[in-house]
Amino acid sequence: MSKALVHPRVDAVGEATARRDGATFLAEVELRGASAAEADARREFAADVARDLALRPKRLQPKYLYDALGSRLFEAICELPWYRITRAERRLLELHAGAMTDSIADLTGVIELGCGSGEKLALLAGGMRRRARPLRVHLVDISPAALDLSARTLATVPHVSVVTHRAAYEVGLRQAATSPLRHGATLVLFLGSNIGNFHPAEADAFFRTVRRALRRGDGLLVGADLVKPEVDLVRAYDDPLGVTAAFDLNLLVRINRELGGTFDLADFTHEARWNAAESRVEMHLHCRRSQQVAIAAAGISVAFEAGETIWTESSYKYVPDAIAARGEAAGFACGEQWIDADAGFAVTLFRVD
Ligand code: AVI
Question: Is residue 13 scored above 50 in pLDDT?
Answer without folding.
Answer: no
